[in-house]
Design goal:
single chain; 495 residues; alpha/beta; Rossmann fold; 17 helices; 12% strand; globular; binds the ligand O=C(O)[C@H]1O[C@H](OP(=O)(O)OP(=O)(O)OC[C@H]2O[C@@H](n3ccc(=O)[nH]c3=O)[C@H](O)[C@@H]2O)[C@H](O)[C@@H](O)[C@H]1O
Length: 495
């Protein structure tokens, strides 16, 4: 035996057992009993392997059994009673596995309870991205009218996950369970469809943000393309009956289109950002699943949605934070010298549009059993905007008044990072098909946002007084001020 192999043998066998190993070391070192050495080496290896298997099993049971997380605080799962074995897709976020509570009878009961309609004729909706901004508001509105809602969210850290947890707690308080789960977890989705005959999927989970797409392009592909495909695959090939799908597209699909107001008939083949390209890809993918599998699919092109419980990555939200803290804000000016303009759309108006789209979606016509469709199913796309673009500088002026503080503004040329100079929705189709009529001005909507913002971050703003000034209502009496505050709080929690 070469000297280094003998040395390795000595090293391994030293771990095998105390006194015996010492004896062995002497014998191996003398080079006299080589065959005894290899025999013991084999035994030591087997022992070490068994010890490792034992340790692994003890410390990492979640890797060996399937975990479904129940995280609304409502009820508990049954430890170790995994619902079924599964692999995790490489596309999935790892956050879901961290504090897992296992599936089982109690978990299934909670899932069914949350998804069960409370009224005759109510629908059962699986809401993806339920702890997101639009997802939270839609889930609350569905629950408020007696529909069944089960939420999914992967609680990723794109923006403050604590805000998502706060929304989750709000939903739990209204009886809506939001599972820690990723839309790319096909087996979990299948399991949920086995438990609940969902009539609809409101698919809002996505990687949002136009400019962030330059920093993290792959996350857009994973959520907005792969994630959408996973949801549609399960809905088409596993769910029985197939649900109708309503999902979040985006105003950004209009890209470099200059015809205004943007109509669903306009070109959408010139996306300005990868975000827009993934949403456009989603619309093409929706066509395929409708065509082949008979899924009823409705895409909603949201226009810069804002309001209470909003997204901190959006300009109105982080501008408000910066104004309060005295930090500078940067405003983009378009190439023609005009201020950037957006068709800012208030959350309550968008929620009405989402519910209208769900209620008029029509049925899917395919069968996951036979793989055939009985005829064409609805395939729709709608703008959900406010129909009145406002310069971003005006949005900042409203915030300044509401917050009682001037912004420290810096105006720069719009960087070429996926942004577009303006958006403007034509909502004729949504108005015709489900009565969509946005009614909230930017002044009123931002007043509701700032009421919530001050409350959530515990800021000492005299919000009702400032809000009334902006709305031109004069100085409110203390009773009308408190009535206003109560109304805003009720709205932010129930819309
Ligand atoms: O409708 C959509 O489909 C998208 O709407 C939203 O995108 P946008 O309309 O771009 O909103 P947002 O980032 O709030 O910028 C607002 C304005 O502020 C300007 N803006 C922005 C940042 C900045 O630092 N300065 C600035 O002037 C900027 O030029 C713009 O004019 C969603 O984020 C997106 O997920 C998607 O849903």
């Amino acid at each position: 035996m070469p000297a280094d192999a003998a040395a390795k043998g000595m090293k391994l066998e030293r771990y095998a057992s105390g006194a015996g190993a010492m004896l062995l070391l002497r014998r191996v070192a003398s080079g006299k009993v080589v065959s005894a050495s290899s025999h013991l080496l084999f035994r030591a290896t087997v022992l070490a392997t068994l010890a490792l298997v034992f340790l692994f099993t003890f410390h990492y049971p979640s890797l060996l059994s399937r975990s479904f997380t129940l995280s609304s605080g409502a009820g508990g799962g049954e430890g170790g009673a995994a619902a079924h074995a599964s692999h995790r897709s490489l596309l999935m976020s790892s956050s879901a596995s961290a504090a897992s509570v296992y599936g089982g009878a109690a978990w299934e009961k909670e899932v069914r309870r949350s998804a069960k309609p409370r009224k005759d004729g109510g629908i059962a909706v699986l809401v993806t991205g339920a702890a997101g901004f639009v997802g939270t508001h839609c889930s609350l509105a569905l629950r408020a009218r007696g529909d069944g809602v089960l939420g999914l969210d992967n609680f990723n850290a794109y923006y403050d996950p604590e805000l998502k947890r706060a929304r989750q707690r709000l939903l739990a308080g209204r009886g809506v369970l939001v599972l820690d789960a990723d839309i790319n977890d096909a087996l979990l989705l299948e399991k949920l469809f086995d438990l609940v005959p969902f009539t609809h999927v409101l698919h809002l989970a996505a990687q949002a943000g136009v400019r962030y797409a330059m920093e993290a392009p792959q996350t857009y592909v994973a959520s907005n393309v792969a994630g959408l495909v996973t949801v549609l695959e399960v809905a088409a090939k596993h769910a029985d009956p197939q649900p109708a799908i309503v999902w979040a597209s985006s105003s950004s699909v209009y890209g470099l289109n200059t015809d205004a107001p943007f109509s669903e008939e306009h070109r959408t083949d010139r996306p300005a950002s990868l975000y827009a390209a993934t949403k456009k890809a989603g619309e093409a993918i929706a066509h395929t699943y409708n065509h082949i599998y008979g899924l009823s699919i409705t895409g909603l092109r949201f226009f810069t949605v804002y309001g209470p419980w909003g997204r901190p990555d959006m300009a109105y939200f982080f501008f408000a934070k910066s104004i309060v803290s005295g930090e500078p804000i940067t405003l983009f000016r378009a190439a023609d010298g005009a201020d950037a303009r957006r068709d800012f759309t208030y959350i309550d108006d968008v929620v009405k549009g989402c519910l209208g789209a769900l209620d008029t979606s029509g049925k899917s016509t395919g069968s996951s059993k036979s793989g055939k469709k009985s005829g064409p199913a609805p395939l729709r796309v709608y703008n959900l905007g406010n129909t009145s673009p406002v310069p971003v500088t005006r949005m900042v002026a409203i915030l300044e008044k509401l917050l009682g503080k001037k912004a420290n503004k810096r105006i720069v040329a719009m960087p070429s990072n996926g942004d577009v100079p303006f958006t403007h929705a034509n909502v004729t189709h949504a108005a015709h098909d489900f009565g969509y009529r946005p009614t909230t001005s930017l002044d009123a909507g931002l007043r509701h946002f700032v009421d919530w913002f001050a409350d959530y971050y515990k800021l000492k703003l005299d919000v009702p007084k400032i809000a009334a000034k902006v709305a031109g209502a004069g100085k409110p009496s203390s009773s009308s001020a408190s009535k206003k505050k109560k109304k805003a709080a009720a709205m932010s929690a129930s819309s």
